[in-house]
Amino acid sequence: xxxxxxxxxxxxxxxxxxxxxxxxxxxxxxxxxxxxxxxxxxxxxxxxxxxxxxxxxxxxxxxxxxxxxxxxxxxxxxxxxxxxxxxxxxxxxxxxxxxxxxxxxxxxxxxxxxxxxxxxxxxxxxxxxxxxxxxxxxxxxxxxxxxxxxxxxxxxxxxxxxxxxxxxxxxxxxxxxxxxxxxxxxxxxxxxxxxxxxxxxxxxxxxxxxxxxxxxxxxxxxxxxxxxxxxxxxxxxxxxxxxxxxxxxxxxxxxxxxxxxxxxxxxxxxxxxxxxxxxxxxxxxxxxxxxxxxxxxxxxxxxxxxxxxxxxxxxxxxxxxxxxxxxxxxxxxxxxxxxxxxxxxxxxxxxxxxxxxxxxxxxxxxxxxxxxxxxxxxxxxxxxxxxxxxxxxxx
Length: 395
Ligand SMILES: Nc1ncnc2c1ncn2[C@@H]1O[C@H](COP(=O)(O)OP(=O)(O)O)[C@@H](O)[C@H]1O
Ligand SMILES: N[C@@H](CCC(=O)OP(=O)(O)O)C(=O)O
Description:
eight-stranded mixed beta sheet; elongated; EC 2.7.2.11; single chain; amino-acid biosynthesis; alpha/beta; Archaeosine Trna-guanine Transglycosylase, Chain: A, domain 4; PUA
């Protein structure tokens, strides 16, 4: 595809440094040209993932290719919904096995449906599982749960799924690997005047029109769904990069934080988007009582809640539950937030210094009980300015 446009190369541009990425790999990159799965491109991308890990960074994979793999195995070109769902079910395991053969980490299959993502409890559970998978060093491989997804509730394309996953796991960037170098002003195969678009400040109607040309023979949605995905991530405060997953130079550049493709910077305020989401997350029924010093630190200094300030734990809750933060006495809520320790563990570290967590529990999820970015303040005094988002190094 890019060969017709070699005279219009994408310039190499610097990428903002990131810590956690969602990498989306399209079907077109995972096939061998004869209808089956091919590992050449996947191998190069797996090396890139290993390189990121060596640099101390985290990657979640959203991989397509189940339908293509099923088609290859059965030499079946069935196109109706039931046929595609059956092909996806057959192809899902070979697709996973392809990746497992290429990375050293254990791979973890995560199949999500639209329902899982709009139901807040399931959304939070998926989030907790994905975070745990990262913590233990697995490579989550997310795909749509094609078997159960009915037509009107189908996400339908993994570009949009990847955008939702990026926001679910608080990624800094969404990396979309496809079979073309990036967005061109028109379909690169059909429009001889099409030229590269290296950066998109805002995805306007005119930009969407550039992507009307449809998908390649194996993909779903083409550039259109990639731009839809980037619209979601940008609004959630996440950068997006489109690059060619069969171009060794583009892959090597990315591992050095340089992009040979299209960059769409975040324009939403990540903290504002996140706080909106937190405000609407339903409570677990659990609560944490804190001392006056901790209350002042939360409201006046924009601090995270540390275990030393916890004086009591009420109710049973899991890690990542939404809990109320209450003063030593009374029921006026000071804050609410997602907790880093389940209630039974929190009972044991209440009053401890953060440095003692590992010796008391035998593990340490985070030095905070509730990280600042996972918390919204509720009292009037709490309207004190929120400091810049700072990511703590919690696993
Ligand atoms: N303006 C455009 N710029 C680049 N590619 C485009 C454009 N419009 C349509 N496309 C098509 O989008 C394809 C990539 O999307 P798709 O086939 O869905 O791949 P994937 O399987 O990676 O999701 C390209 O191969 C190209 O055929
Ligand atoms: N869930 C489908 C992927 C659908 C899809 O979005 O494909 P693609 O456009 O290649 O990313 C599969 O695994 O085949």
